[in-house]
Amino acid sequence: MFPSLQELRRRLRATGYISNPVDTTTIYLAACLHKPVLLEGPAGSGKTQLAYAIADAAGSTVERLQCYQGINEDVAIGKFDESLQRLCVELKSKSTTVEWDSLQTELHARQFFVAGPLLRALEYKEPCVLLIDELDKVDQAFEAVLLELLSVWRLSIPKLGTVKADSIPFVVLTSNEERRIGDPLRRRSFYLRVEHPSAEREAEIVALKTPSASREFHAGLAGLAKALRGWSLEKPPSVSEILDLALALKVLGEERVTPDMRDMLLPLLAKTEADRKKLLLRDGFASLVYDAQQHTQETLRSVV
Q1: Is the pTM of this model over 0.85?
Q2: Could you state, in order of their start, the residue ranges of all structural domains in the chain?
Q3: How many Å separate Cα 29 from the centre of its chain?
Q4: Domain 5-77+116-193 architecture
Q5: pLDDT tens-digit profile of 54-97?
Q6: Which residues are registered as beta bridge partners of 190?
Q7: At how many degrees (to 10) do helices 284-302 and 199-209 cross?
Q8: CA dihedral 47, 48, 50, 52 (to 10 degrees)
C-alpha cells in the first residue's frame, strides 16, 4: 500500500493527520506484513480518523463495520436476499420445467447474497481499509467471527461456501475500552495506544485546518481543549469537536475565547446536560478560560 515509511509519513500529513514516529512505523509494518492494527484509547481521541487517514494516504476506500450490542453475522458478513430468491423461483416455475436440484444450487450463488462490510472488504481488486469500529461494544462470541478473516483472509459462509480474499485489506480495529478485547484478536494484531493529543500536537492539528489563523489562535484552541479535558466532564471534547470550534470561531471573526462568550459557545462545548450545568456554575466558565490561558502560554513557550 505504501512504497516506503517516509512516503507514508508524508502522505499521512498531507491528509491532515499528524502521527508520531512509532504510530507511523507500526502502520507501515502492518501494511507490509498484513497485520491488523488495534487502536485502543478514550472516545474522541482520533482512532476512527486515523483509519480514514490511512485510506486517504493509500488512495483507497474504507469499508466500515460499526459495532453495536447485538450485532450479528447477517450485518457483518451478509445474508441471502430471500425476496429475490422467491422471485427467481416464481419466474422459473412459470417458464420451464424446474430442475429443483439445479435451482437450489443457483439460489445459493453469490448473485443472491447481499454482502456486508466484511465480505465486501475481501472482494476489492485493490486493498481497501476495513474499519471495525468500537469492537468493545460486542461480546467475545462475535469476536470469534473475525478470527478466520484475520488469520487466513477468507470467510466460510453457510450455503454460499468459502470466499477467499481477492486482495488483503488493511484492518483497523478500534476500542474505547468499555470491554476488554479478547486475547486471540490481540495476538493477531499490532497494538497502538491512542490518547488525546498533547497541547503542542493539537495546536499543530488546528493549524492544518486553519492555516490563515495566528500561532496564538492555534495554541489557544489547544489550551482550551486541555482545560476542558481536565475538568472531569461527562463528555470531554474530541479532536474533531475542537476543530469544529476553531472553524466556528473563524466564522464569527473571533481570535480567542473569553468568559463573556460562555452562552454562545455552550452548544459547541457541552454535549450533556450535566456538563452544561457544570459550565454554567458561577465563575465556572471564567475559571475554565483562565486554565485554558495558562495552558496556552505553556504551549506557546514549548513551540518557540
Answers
A1: yes
A2: 5-77+116-193, 199-302
A3: 20
A4: 3-Layer(aba) Sandwich (3.40)
A5: 999 999 999 999 999 999 999 999 999 999 988 988 887 777 67
A6: 37
A7: 90
A8: 180
